[in-house]
Amino acid sequence: MCHVFRARSRDDGREIAIKLLKEKHRNEDRVIDLFITEADLSLMLNHPNLINTIEAGEIKGRYFIAMELIEGVTLEDLIKQVQNLGLSLPPDFGLFIVHQVLEGLNSLHNFTGISGRELDLVHRDVTPSNIFICFDGRVVLGDFGVAHIRAYGGIDSSVTIGKLGYLSPESVVGDDIDHRSDLFSVGIILWEILCGSRLYTGEKESEIMNAIAEASVPDLTQIRPGISRTLADTVKKSLARKPQSRFENCLELSYALRPEWSTELASQESIKALLAGLFRDDFQRWAAKQDHETIASII
After folding, report:
1. Which of 155, 226, 153, 217 is nearest to 190 (CA)?
2. pTM of the full structure
């Protein structure tokens, strides 16, 4: 829907990202509604694991969102790079990344408006391409373009929104969805990180949708024997066909995962070191820029 530009703030000179709705969409009410919803939500949300929005508005009929510039890679980029080297992402690192995503998602799900009313937000597009891993090791969930505020009339279940391979069963069959739909998406990401392959694939969209609708999930321990039975069961519960059979919220899933990874092995600093090794050229350019800005601020 949008162009994304690197820009510089006139206020403080820092680099930011500008998301600009494409000209061809300026008269499409549905697209504009999604974009404005993203802008409104982004401006309200404030959490270290959610992308930070600075300003949003309209200029000459073109809608824009100004947000922090994420310098790093997506989780999708990271997984591909590791696979290209014939390796797999260490489980501790993967679980740390998911833990950070759950922290941001929990804040989103529990956000209340100025009046104190719970908005019952659902992201609806939790995917590896929307999880950003900064070169400083931070993990940020972004892109609220299809997020929905259930408190204002619920979600239109007749319209399937999101990336197909990461939808929940209730999304593909047209049932009502809530925050547990996002937890199913997190479960897919967990499964893929641990297995090093996609969970739901197929030559036709109908094949993928049928597999999701059935919540067909291979046993993790059969694919990766080194994975504990407890962790496999946690992932399986995340991918339960019925929402009521999944974890009730992000905190429950996070608590269940916590004993399965080590803070001594996986942390913001170790993720930073991992990116420095896997994306050396881009990382070095980023690091050089940080050094330059530090010296300039001292001078």
Report:
1. 217
2. 0.90
CATH code of the domain covering residue 227? 1.10.510.10
Cβ atoms of 126 and 295 within 8 Å: the answer is no
Specify if 273 maps to a domain: no
Number of domains observed in the structure of the chain: 2
**Could you tell me the pLDDT band of residue 38, with boundaries at 50, 70 and 90?**
confident
What is the Cα–Cα distance from 244 to 257, expressed in whole angstroms?
19
Same domain, 262 and 169: yes
Task: Convert the chain into a string of H (helix), E (strand) and C (coil).
Answer: CEEEEEEECCCCCCEEEEEEECHHHCCCHHHHHHHHHHHHHHHHCCCCCECCEEEEEEECCEEEEEEECCCEEEHHHHHHHHHHCCCCCCHHHHHHHHHHHHHHHHHHHCCECCCCCECCEECCCCCHHHEEEECCCCEEECCCCCCEECCCCCCCCCCCCCCHHHCCHHHHHCCCCCHHHHHHHHHHHHHHHHHCCCCCCCCCHHHHHHHHHHCCCCCHHHHCCCCCHHHHHHHHHHCCCCHHHCCCCHHHHHHHHHHHCCCCCCCHHHHHHHHHHHCHHHHHHHHHHHHHHHHHHHC
* Contact indicator for 212, 201 with CB cutoff of 8 Å: no
Structure tokens at 24: 């061809």
**Domain limits for position 41:** 2-68
- Quick one: 234 and 264 in the same domain? yes
Which strands make up the sheet holding 62-68, listed edge to edge?
Answer: 2-8, 15-21, 62-68, 53-59
Range scoring the smallest mean pLDDT among 56-65, 182-191, 263-272? 56-65
